[in-house]
Design a protein that fits this description.
disordered N terminus; mainly alpha; Serine Threonine Protein Phosphatase 5, Tetratricopeptide repeat; 24 helices
C-alpha cells in the first residue's frame, strides 16, 4: 500500500504542481500578449514606427515587419523599434529572432521595461528560468510608463511562478507585490494555495482552494489541490466525497480519477483496482498511471501482473531506483530470488537511503546464500528503520551461516522475544539452533 500511495502522490503532484509551476511552454503566465507598446520616453514617435504599431494593433504582422525592417536597418539603436520588431517575432513564435531583438532593445535602452518583461517571459517559456528571472526582476524595478501597474503585476506574477520551483517563501512575496498592483485573480488564489501547501500551511491552503471552488466548482486545480490536502490529513472519506462530486462536473479527468483511486485504495475499497485498470486502458502510455496500477496490483497479490507493468516502465527508465525496488519486491514474491538479488543490488547502489531497498536486499541475499550481504543490508537498513521480528531472524540466520555463534544466538533470542508466537516455523528453527549454539 505504501508504494501505491507514493505513486499516486506522484501523479497528484503533477496536477497540483501546475498551480504553481507553469514554466513550461504554453503557460499563459509566460505567453506574449498585449503590451500597450508604449515608451517611457516622451520623444516623438517616427512615422514608420507609428505605422508599424498601428499594424501590430491590427495583428497585421507582415505590414509591421515591412515597416520596421528598413527603419531598423537605418536606425539600429532605436530601442522602441527594436522592441516592436521583437514583439512581432515573438507572437509569430520566432523565439530566437524575438530574443535577439529584445536584447538589442535592452542594449539600446537598459531601462526599457517592456523589453525586460517580454524577454523574461520568452526565456521562461523556453525553460531558461535563471536567465528569465534576471530580466523579470529587472522589469519589476523599472517604470512601466503608460502601461500602468497591470504589466508590472504581470512581471511579479511571472517571478512568483519561477520562484515557486525553488523558493516558495520568496514566491509568496513576489505574489504579494503583484497583488499590491492588481486585483487578485483565481490563478493568484490557486498559486497562493499551492505555495501555502509547500510551506506546510495546510489550513491556509485549504481555505484558498475552497475560495476558488466557491466561485468555480469545476476548477480542476482547486479540486485536486483540496483533495490532496484532505489526503494529507487522512480524511479519505471527505476526499472521496469531494472527488466524486468533482468528477460529475469534470468527467473522466485523469488527475482527479487517479486521486479517487488513491483514496479508495487507502480505504481498502475494491473499486480502486477496476478504476485504475480503466484509467490505464484509456492512457496506456502514461507512466504515472502505469506505476499506480502496478503498485496496487502488487498490493492485491498479483505480483506477476504487477511485474509485467514494471518491466514495461523499466524498459524506458532502467535506472529508476523506485521501479527497481518495486520490481525486486515482485521477484521476491515470485520466488525468483537470484533475479531479485541482482535487481536489488542495483537499486541500493542508486538509492542508498531507501530502507525498503535494503530490507528487500537483505531477504533476497538470505535466500541466495549471501549472508555477508544480508548483514551489510541490515546494517544499512537500521540507519533508517527500527528492527522487528523479521529483521532479527535475518540477522540471526546470517550470523549463523557466517559461524558467528555469539551474535547468532543473541539475535535468535531477540527474534523469539519479538515474535511472541506469530511465526511458528521460524520460532521452532530458532529454538533448535539455540540448543546447538549454546551447548
Amino acid at each position: 500500500m505504501l508504494r501505491f500511495v507514493l505513486c499516486a502522490a506522484f501523479l497528484v503532484c503533477l496536477s497540483c504542481a501546475s498551480v504553481a509551476q507553469e514554466s513550461s511552454s504554453g503557460s499563459s503566465t509566460f505567453q506574449a500578449g498585449p503590451t500597450g507598446l508604449s515608451s517611457p520616453s516622451s520623444s516623438p514617435i517616427p512615422a514608420e514606427v507609428s505605422a508599424a504599431e498601428s499594424a501590430i494593433a491590427a495583428a497585421d504582422w507582415k505590414t509591421a515587419e515591412a515597416r520596421l525592417e528598413p527603419w531598423i536597418a537605418g536606425h539600429p539603436d532605436d530601442a522602441r523599434a527594436l522592441f516592436d520588431a521583437g514583439y512581432v517575432a515573438d507572437v509569430q513564435n520566432r523565439e530566437n529572432d524575438a530574443a535577439a531583438l529584445y536584447r538589442r532593445a535592452i542594449q539600446a535602452d537598459p531601462k526599457s521595461f517592456e523589453a525586460h518583461l517580454m524577454l523574461g517571459l520568452l526565456l521562461a517559456r523556453k525553460g531558461g528560468l535563471d536567465e528569465a528571472r534576471t530580466d523579470l526582476a529587472a522589469a519589476t524595478q523599472l517604470e512601466p510608463g503608460e502601461d500602468g501597474p497591470e504589466l508590472k503585476a504581470r512581471a511579479w506574477r511571472a517571478l512568483a511562478r519561477i520562484d515557486s520551483n525553488t523558493d516558495p517563501v520568496r514566491a509568496s512575496n513576489d505574489l504579494m507585490e503583484a497583488l499590491k498592483l492588481a486585483p487578485e485573480t483565481a490563478d493568484d488564489t490557486l498559486m497562493a494555495a499551492s505555495l501555502a501547501e509547500k510551506t506546510g500551511q495546510y489550513d491556509a491552503a485549504e481555505e484558498a482552494y475552497r475560495r476558488v471552488l466557491a466561485k468555480d466548482p469545476k476548477s480542476e486545480q482547486a479540486n485536486a489541490g483540496l483533495a490532496h490536502i484532505l489526503m494529507l490529513h487522512k480524511q479519505y472519506a471527505d476526499a472521496e466525497t469531494l472527488l466524486r462530486s468533482a468528477l460529475k462536473e469534470i468527467p473522466d479527468d485523469t488527475a482527479l480519477t487517479a486521486q479517487l483511486a488513491t483514496v479508495l485504495a487507502a480505504q481498502d475499497k475494491a473499486e480502486a483496482l477496476p478504476l485504475l485498470e480503466k484509467l490505464h486502458s484509456a492512457h496506456p502510455a502514461d507512466a504515472a498511471i502505469t506505476r499506480m496500477l502496478a503498485a496496487i496490483l502488487s498490493d492485491s497479490g498479483d505480483a506477476a501482473g504487477s511485474d509485467r507493468l514494471y518491466a514495461t516502465l523499466l524498459a524506458s527508465t532502467p535506472k529508476d531506483p523506485d521501479l527497481l525496488v518495486a520490481h525486486g519486491e515482485n521477484l521476491v514474491r515470485l520466488q525468483r530470488f537470484a533475479e531479485a538479488y541482482a535487481v536489488l543490488e542495483s537499486a541500493t547502489e542508486l538509492a542508498p537511503s531507501d530502507p525498503d531497498a535494503w530490507s528487500d536486499l537483505a531477504f533476497a541475499a538470505s535466500r541466495t546464500s549471501h549472508p555477508d550481504v544480508t548483514v551489510h543490508a541490515l546494517t544499512e537498513r537500521s540507519k533508517f528503520l527500527p528492527e522487528n521480528a523479521s529483521t532479527y531472524f535475518l540477522w540471526a540466520t546470517a550470523y549463523d551461516s557466517l559461524h558467528e555463534k555469539k551474535q547468532a544466538a543473541a539475535y535468535y533470542h531477540r527474534f523469539l522475544e519479538a515474535s511472541a508466537g506469530k511465526y511458528a516455523n521460524q520460532e521452532w528453527q530458532a529454538r533448535q539452533r539455540l540448543q546447538i549454539l549454546e551447548k
